[in-house]
């Protein structure tokens, strides 16, 4: 399959799911997760008009994206991996959105970096939706306080993000994240990956993060 085939296949899956759910397709942003992919692998998607990309690591994004951005100034970069507070300034300088805001110290570091730079990337609060010890994301019970802190610090809160437990049916976790977002009055839902895009879109995802279905399996 060519990159064009892969992109249209993923777009078709999203379109079908949106139709079933009677949702406006414009309410779903496809983020092409380009972590571990070379600039040469990313460029065809940019050439095809795709603009939203996701990276896990700040350093990797710093290596790849300045040159790509020069060629495609309207490309948007989403940081989706766990973020150390000492990388907050780099993240704010580089990203259009940060999907992994998950603790008070990171909110504070991002707020400082935003105030210093004047750049204000959209922020998603990552929720440890399956209550897994090894996973990033704040505990479900801590979401209201973290959202309040983020709002007080003038972070542009766009929504909630989750990664459901690996190997389990994701629908209950997506539905739970959507419920928490409704209760907390946040609009965005960053959820759904290559294997479960349809489920996520049906349950209200506004941002789906798709890697392998667009680029092939990561090595
Ligand atoms: C890698 C990654 C994805 C994409 O996963 P695929 O299964 O390759 O689609 C989405 N979200 C996060 C946070 C990731 O790290």
Automatic annotation (TrEMBL):
Which InterPro entries is this protein grouped with? Ala_racemase_N, PLP-binding_barrel, PyrdxlP_homeostasis
Which SUPFAM superfamilies does the entry mention? PLP-binding barrel
- Keywords of this protein's UniProt record, alphabetized? Pyridoxal phosphate
Q: Which Pfam families match?
A: Ala_racemase_N
Instruction: Please give the Gene3D superfamilies that the UniProt record associates with this protein.
Output: Alanine racemase
Q: Does the keyword Metal-binding apply?
A: no
Please state every residue range assigned to the domain named Alanine racemase N-terminal.
Answer: 7-218
**Residue(s) carrying N6-(pyridoxal phosphate)lysine:** 35
Q: Which family does it belong to?
A: Belongs to the pyridoxal phosphate-binding protein YggS/PROSC family.
Cited HAMAP family: PLP_homeostasis
* Function according to Swiss-Prot or TrEMBL: Pyridoxal 5'-phosphate (PLP)-binding protein, which is involved in PLP homeostasis.
- Protein name as annotated: Pyridoxal phosphate homeostasis protein
State the organism's lineage. Bacteria, Pseudomonadati, Pseudomonadota, Alphaproteobacteria, Sphingomonadales
